[in-house]
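hey can u check if this looks right to u? its 307 residues, i copy pasted from the old doc so theres a chance i mangled smth
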Amino acid sequence: MCTTCGCGVGQTRINGKMVQSRQRADAQLRFRPLQSDHTHPHEHDYAPSPVAPQIPNTIDFGAGIAGTHAPGMSQTRMVKIERDILAKNNQYADENRRYLAERGIFALNLVSSPGSGKTTLLVKTIEMLRDRFPVAVIEGDQQTDHDAARIRATGVPALQINTGKGCHLDAHMIGQALQQLLLQQNSLLFIENVGNLVCPSGFDLGEAHKVVILSVTEGEDKPLKYPDMFHAADLMLLNKCDLLPYLTFDVNQAIAYAQRIHPGLPVIQISTTKSDGIPEWIDWIMAGCHRAATTSHAAQPLDSRLG
């Protein structure tokens, strides 16, 4: 369940088959109340009103301790639910991370808003890397397998996860997908998350890095509007830069906003149609693949294939 909007996994499908929830005997994590000068252990039953606006004509529903709001639910209760959900997700993420590390698999979680050009960029990237080492893709979408079909047309395996009403992938879904994909040692795995600049930021999938893709057809203030995503990412790709002559998008301002949220965040400016920035993106991936292969328990010589 999403910690932000409460979407569930009841309609999750992998390659068209319903995903069953996995029951575990683990004891539920106990909630430890936040430290405050009001420390008695019971939870309040009332739902406090949104924090009073700090700016005239503004009502801020994200200023409480939970950072969000649900009608009729206290902030403390929301924090408890979020901690329980994320704790369980993180257990699955740790399992995924161990699985990938033991096999020298470099996994990237691509996140963006819908329409950023993520799938087109992924197809271009696969075409440049598929002859150097094994590549596989996990596709996330609420409905359809259109993007997975585009990936399969490149000749690499792609497994589709349909999330139904869910607005993001989670680590349990990825674990199920890993069991079906049977990835090769020292390979590259792309996870194309559901198009959404909010919820995917909160879920560790066991990936090596989140890569956020921002296109110049969006506003340059996206990093300020959706800061969690840019804070969680380790790389920002600024896509569709070939369209800049026709737009009023301010590249320097967009990068400044992103690095205000995440100081030092590396940025690569890319055009899939012109191939600008693609070599730098490919070099970044290959360096990651090399690290994953050489630090895995089953390290195998990769230098010849990585060039």
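The radius of gyration is 21 Å.
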